[in-house]
Amino acid sequence: MAIEPHPEADRDAPASQAHSGRGRLLVSCPDRPGIVAAVSRLLYDLGANISDADQHSTDPSGGTFFMRMAFELPAAREGRDGVTLDAVRDAFGREVAPRFAMRWRMADAGRPKRVAVLASKVEHCLQELLWRRRAGEFDDPIVMVISNHQRLRSVAESFGVPFHHLPVREGETAAQEERALELLEGTADVVVLARYMQVLSPAFVARYRERMINIHHSFLPAFSGGRPYHRAYERGVKLIGATAHYVTEELDQGPIIEQDVVRVSHRQRVPELVRLGREIERRVLARAVQLHLEDRILVHGNKTIVFE
């Protein structure tokens, strides 16, 4: 069986880049005996110390096996001559992955992923990400904010983050997307849609497959379109929620990363529902971004395996 390359497999750490000596390995493959032993043995032979490991199987007899393993290379961390993360990656791709027909990636845990945020007019999700970054909850930098409106410029710049205004004019959507891609290329590893109220083209989405995260309320598909909280209020909903997912070509149908809900009653009117909804969106998006930055997500079909 051919090994399917992962979109991040060759992107995380160029050979010319110094490594931190901390790695994260994510694996999916057909389940069979010996997988954990083979991975652990290779890391041991190369002088690595496993610091965290988690695994899941859909069915031990013929199912799919998933694993996340974090490890350290003491020699590399101390600046001594020894096995580098590049060497571990090469050995794994040569000696272990082909034996088990693995889909895998190995990330340098000390190399921050660069985050770009796309937003429109509503600021709560952008504010949450910027605040958590300033508070030290994200080690990974937010390198830019791109918006089709000027309203959020002061928010981004108050946190010292570059702001790019790319308006969307009728008949010029393709040109606007191309300009956005020019800004992102080589600058951003992860794209977060923080209430970005534009539908992206399939070509744009394909450039950041499994690296673009969106947030929206969880009324879909019952209350799609505009004014969902008004329609939910009219129907007397009892739960308000939010969903964060990877973006795919099919609108709001990508693999779900994180969700949350809060109970409501007939006593809450539309403004209160909106406020509660925004609070949940902030938490859910921030949680989904953090899971991605820490390499805790494996996509399997149209669902995710999340190692928490």
Question: Describe it for me?
Answer:
By secondary structure, the chain is an alpha/beta fold. It folds into two domains: 87 residues, 2-Layer Sandwich (Alpha-Beta Plaits), CATH 3.30.70.260; 192 residues, 3-Layer(aba) Sandwich (Rossmann fold). The chain contains nine helices and 13 strands. The strands form three sheets. Strands 7-6-5-8-9-10-11 form a seven-stranded mixed sheet. It has a four-stranded antiparallel sheet with strand order 2-3-1-4.
Please tag this protein with its features.
308 residues; alpha/beta; Rossmann fold; 7-stranded mixed β-sheet; 4-stranded antiparallel β-sheet; globular; disordered N terminus
The fraction of residues in strands falls at: 25-35%
Assign the CATH superfamily of the largest domain.
Answer: Formyl transferase, N-terminal domain
Number of domains: 2
**Element order, helices and strands?**
EHEEHHEEHEHEHEHEHEEHEE
Radius of gyration over alpha carbons?
21 Å
Strand order of the largest sheet: 7-6-5-8-9-10-11
| 3D shape | globular
In percent, how helical is the residue content?
A: 25-40%
Q: Could you tell me how far the N terminus lies from the C terminus, measured between alpha carbons in angstroms?
A: 30 Å
Secondary structure: number of strands: 13
- In the CATH hierarchy, the third-tier topology of the largest domain is known as Rossmann fold
